[in-house]
Design a protein that fits this description.
34% helix; alpha/beta; Alpha-D-Glucose-1,6-Bisphosphate, Chain A, domain 3; 475 residues; 14 helices; six-stranded mixed β-sheet; 21% strand; globular; TATA-Binding Protein
């Protein structure tokens, strides 16, 4: 079997189906996964793995059921018992791995990638992530070496389990939903797993969905990749907001572990502003707590953390890396510019429903006036009013991506901006008194990613043009 090792990413495993990844390769990958999670246990001989449980789920991808069946076969052939939770969002799989007595979990998904992709996210017991630093590359090396896991004489058993209600009970119990007002929302599920979320929200909250855009589960993604972070993927949501005048809009990616917001005017809210808002919200709940964020956009988030007397911690991007650091630091909240949000209240794991409930809480109560030390007012603030002080103080670019062939491109940028304060936590961050930018190589694609932030719109445009021009020259 010819194996394209590029499918083994820093955070997960994903590739084009069936050219780069297929059911046979999934079987071999899971054999390596079994070796990883069982090798240190004295009882993990070929006849004694029945005491191990692994939970398996899949999303609506076209390859989802096929890959799930292959993963389950690899587990049961190794003598491991399986809890099959079926069609679920990625954060539901994380919940199952964190709460069930399992040695690990496997979610069959390719996240927000186009329909031709398939893949998986792997975790250990309690939902602890497996990243490039903690096992993915070891699994890769086992697969490349044609490692053969011994077939057990005692085949594992499969139990089907529906965990959805337990999951929703867990999420909702962390919020005082009695405070949430009958707000009006436009939502876009992007043909993905958030459709399940909408139905539950309607049952449990006094909110009204004026329209749910693309509510069908459809792994063909007929309107393109299910990634609201792409500007080209926002038009339908914006049009519905402008037509129906809700209190705000919300959208999810395909596996529903990332959540994005639009204000009442239809303006997309750059995730960094939501990161700042929720940092304040959770620091009210956990005074003096630690808040984790990635390196891409930091100034607005650090401002909110300082205003609320918290401790800011910067970490390299990637859901696996963030989760590992969240648990290590006992952080109360974590975030990424990509729209991932992490919560102490959720076993330090990311979740795509928590941010919506937090925003509903903020917009429904007077606490939002204090989350960033804003003056109180008698009437509730709109989303745009709430964000106005941040939007007028911190100007942030969209992420700009460049294909490149110059392997020294980061050094070229570093040499040009050598007078900056330079940090190399993830790629390179260059800080000046009135502006800052971060450049890093993608861990999932052959792209250079650029993010800028500045004190004014004019300065942001000037520096964006300057950097884009330079990178295009040297890429």
């Amino acid at each position: 079997m010819n194996i394209d090792t590029s499918i083994f990413k820093a955070y997960d495993i994903r590739g084009i189906y069936p050219e780069q990844i297929n059911a046979d390769l999934v079987y071999k990958i899971i054999q390596g996964y079994v070796q990883l999670i069982t090798r240190k246990d004295a009882e993990t001989n070929a006849e004694g793995r029945g005491n191990f449980l692994v939970v398996v789920g899949h999303d609506m991808r076209l390859s989802g059921e096929e890959f799930s069946e292959s993963a389950i076969s690899a587990l049961t052939d190794a003598g491991i018992n399986v809890i099959d939770i079926g069609l679920v969002s990625t954060d539901q799989l994380y919940f199952a791995a964190a709460t069930l007595p399992v040695a690990g979990g496997i979610q069959i998904t390719a996240s927000h990638n186009p329909k031709e992709f398939g893949g998986m996210k792997l975790v250990r017991a309690k939902g602890a992530p497996i990243s490039g630093d903690s096992g993915i590359y070891e699994i890769r090396d086992m697969v490349i070496s044609n490692f053969q896991f011994p077939i057990s004489k005692n085949k594992g058993k499969v139990e089907k389990k529906d965990i959805k209600q337990e999951y929703f009970d867990h999420v909702f119990k962390t919020f005082d939903v009695s405070k949430i007002k009958p707000l009006k929302i436009v939502a876009n599920t992007n043909f993905g797993m958030a459709t399940q979320v909408i139905d539950e929200l309607k049952k449990r909250l006094p909110i009204e969905f004026l329209e749910v855009v693309n509510p069908e589960l459809d792994g063909n993604f007929p309107k393109g990749p299910s990634d609201p972070l792409l500007p080209s993927n926002r038009g339908e949501t914006i049009a519905a907001i402008e037509k129906l005048h809700p209190d705000f809009g919300v959208a999810w990616d395909g596996d529903a572990d990332r959540c994005f917001f639009f204000d009442e005017n239809g303006k997309f809210i750059t995730p960094a502003y939501i990161n700042a808002l929720l940092a304040g919200y959770y620091l009210q709940k956990y005074p003096g707590g630690k808040v984790l964020h990635d390196t891409r956009v930091v100034r607005v988030i650090d401002y909110a953390i300082a205003q609320n007397h918290g401790v800011a911690i910067m970490n390299k991007a990637g859901h696996s890396f963030i989760k590992e650091r969240m648990a290590k630091e006992d952080a109360v909240f974590g975030n990424e510019t990509s729209g991932h949000y992490y919560f102490k209240d959720n076993f330090y794991l990311d979740n795509g429903l928590f941010p919506l409930l937090a925003v509903l809480d903020i917009l429904s109560t007077e606490t939002q006036k204090n989350s960033l030390q804003m003056p109180t007012e008698a009437k509730p603030m709109t989303f745009s009013e709430l964000l106005k002080p941040l939007r007028e103080k911190f100007y942030i670019s969209e992420e700009i991506n460049f294909e490149f062939t110059n392997t020294n491109i980061l050094e070229d940028i570093k040499n040009k901006y050598s007078d900056a304060e330079i940090d190399n936590t993830d790629g390179f961050s260059f800080s000046y008194p009135s502006w800052r930018f971060n450049v890093r190589s993608s861990n999932t694609q052959n792209l250079l990613r650029l993010n800028l932030e500045a004190d004014s719109e004019e300065l942001l445009k000037q520096k964006t043009d300057e950097l884009v021009g330079f990178i295009n020259e040297v890429k």
